[in-house]
Each structure stands twice: as structure tokens, then as C-alpha cells.
Amino acid sequence: MKYVDEFRDPQLARNLLAGIWERSTRPVQFMEFCGGHTHAIFRYGLRQVLPPTVRLRSGPGCPVCVTANGDLDRAIALARLPGVILTTFGDMLKVPGSHGSLQTARAEGADVRMVYSTLDALQMAREHPDRAVIFLGVGFETTAPTVAAAILQAEAEGLDNFTVLSLHKLTPPATRAILDAGEVNLSGIIGPGHVTTLIGSRAWEFLPQEYGVGCAVAGFEPLDILRAVAALVEMAEDGRPTVVNAYSRSVRPEGNRAALEVMERVFEVGEADWRGLGRVPVSGLTLRPEYARFDAALAFPVQPGPTREHKSCRCGDVLRGTIEPPDCPLFRRVCTPAHPIGPCMVSAEGACAAWYQYGE
pLDDT tens digits, residue range 323-337? Predict the structure, then answer.
């Protein structure tokens, strides 16, 4: 119970909030990049206890949500190939593409299987040497090293029936894209704790240096987020943006070098398509040429057909922070967790799912 007491202590929370209310005199808007932060903020009612001068906005920090329809259509087309087993994390199953979802494809006969890790996908490749096992690589910097390690293990074992469709994305370039677009006036960024554990707090130094925007890296307990908000308020009031590590029990300035080295050994940086942001340079991870034989996109060059977006779904606007979920005409009326129209309602980290579950 010591861990819970330390990071959910009511008196510490009251002290932090009192400091924020006393210090905050000017309107500020902070964006939490991570979908985990969005759900924690709503779950613990942090929006309601902050002063009216402090406004929080959700960003594109849900890897399921930012997966572009074209990429999802490709995954569905791969799953429909004869002899293929497509493995994926469970939150990708219900995400709607242009003409259905992976769950729809499975209902129609495609062999789509949910896994909990890349180790499960590797084991399927071992157990089914006569089948092509494809792992759908979705996620930010946190999951990419595990996929890289799986590719290295497949190479070591000579598993020539294992491939990866890499849809991995990098978070700092997406933050740049939002700031460059200038659609949302941001005074600070709540840095994603899990991602920054890997890439290190130094990875966010471009925010104060190039954009004059402060960054406070936060964990996922209520006090973690309040400490980050307090630090951002302090920066905004003093006019001195910097990077503050409010998650020092997990995050180091240099990050996790061992994990980064594995990731950089297997992947190289390229452009990527993001829902809501379009094509963002240097924001995706593709397999290096020496590991091209594990690239499902090269091994199975499918043509999924034209991409179609739902005309009324405003998931992309939610991901950019230009609107909040209730501003979407489909929210709660047509789009619900049981019948999602957009991925922001599907994923456990989606902003629409947070609003639906916890409300304002």
C-alpha cells in the first residue's frame, strides 16, 4: 500500500492544487499527449478541480486511434490472404477501416488472432511452419523495441514464416506537427511517461528551445499529473519554458539505451501516415534493408483499394485537439463503444472512450 499512499495521498493532492490555484493567474492550455493520461485525468476528475485558468486538451497519444485508414485497410487485406495468420493486439480488432474491421474479416473467415505480446506471435510461427504468420506492429516507441527483439529472435531461429507489418510511430514529430499547424494555442505539453521512459526526457528539449513551449513529463497517478500541471503553470507564469521530469522514478534524461539500441538496430526512421495529421516526415519506423525479409508489406504486396473516411466522424479533429469529443455530431448519438464509428471510441486510450465512460 505504500506505493498507492505515496501517489494518491489526499493531503498532498490538496497542497498541489492549492499551489496551482494560487500561482495560476493567466489562461493557459496544456495538451496531454498520452491517451493513458487522458483516461487518468477523467477517471480522477482532475479537470473539475483545476482552476478555470487551466484548460487541458487531449492529443494524438493513442496509437490505435492515429492508425490511418489506409494502413488498417492493408492489414485487413493481408488477413484475407489464404494461408495467413494475422496476429494483433486486441484493441485493433474493432477499429473500423474503409470497408469493415479485422473483427469483420475474422467473422468472414480470415484467420485473425489476438495476442498479448510478440512472443505469442513467434510461438504461432513455430507451431504453424506451413502458415505465414504476420504480426501487426502498432504502437509508439514503447512497443517498437519488443517487435525489434522478436525479429532478431526470428532471425536467430530461422523462422522464415514470420513477418511484421510495421505501423509504428514516433511521438515527438507528431507534437511538432501539431505545433507547426498552429490550430491549437498551447502553453505546455504533458509529456507521455511510458514513451519518455524509453526515449528520455532530453528528447523533449526541442519544445522550449524551438517553440517556447514547456514540457513536464508525467506518470499516471493523480499526483503525477498534478505535479506536471503545477510545473507547467510555474513555467507559464514565469515565462521560462523548460523540460521538467515529474516522473523521475521511471524516466531518465538519456532514456533506456538498451531498448533504443535494439529498436535502432532493426528499424530506420521514415515518414508515416497519421489519422488527423496526414503524412508526417521522420515519424514512422520501417525495417532496415538487412531485415527486409521480415517486412510483411514487401512479402505480401496487397492492393487494398481506395480509402474511404466516414464523412461525419471527427476523430482526426479530436486527435489534433481542435475539438473535444462532444463536438462531434456522432458522439454518443451514433458512435458508442458498442457501435464505434471512429477509433477514438474503440481504444482503451481513446479520448472519445474517456468522455463516454466518465463524462465531463
Answer: 999 999 999 999 999
d(Cα 172, Cα 241) in Å, to the nearest integer?
A: 17
> pLDDT band for position 144 (50/70/90)?
very high
**What is the pLDDT at residue 1?**
40
d(CA 332, CA 103): 22
Nearest C-alpha neighbor of 85 from the set 186, 165, 205, 145: 165
Residues 71 and 67: their CA atoms lie apart, in Å, by: 7
Q: Tell me whether residue 225 is exposed, middle or buried, using C-beta atoms within 10 angstroms of its C-beta: 0 to 12, 13 to 18, 19 or more.
A: buried
CA distances from residue 94 to 90, 208, 356 in whole angstroms, order as listed: 8, 38, 17
Domains of the chain plus CATH, in order, are 2-63+171-245 (3.40.50.11750), 69-168+257-288 (3.40.50.11740), 315-358 (no CATH)
- Three cell numbers, residue 125: 510461427
Each residue of 164-180: pLDDT tens digit? 999 999 999 999 999 99
CB distance 71 to 169 below 8 Å: no
For the stretch 298-328, pLDDT in tens is: 999 998 888 888 889 999 999 999 999 999 9
How many Å apart are CA 69 and CA 339, to the nearest integer?
A: 17
Beta bridge partners of 56: 30
d(CA 67, CA 346): 12
pTM of the predicted model over 0.85: yes
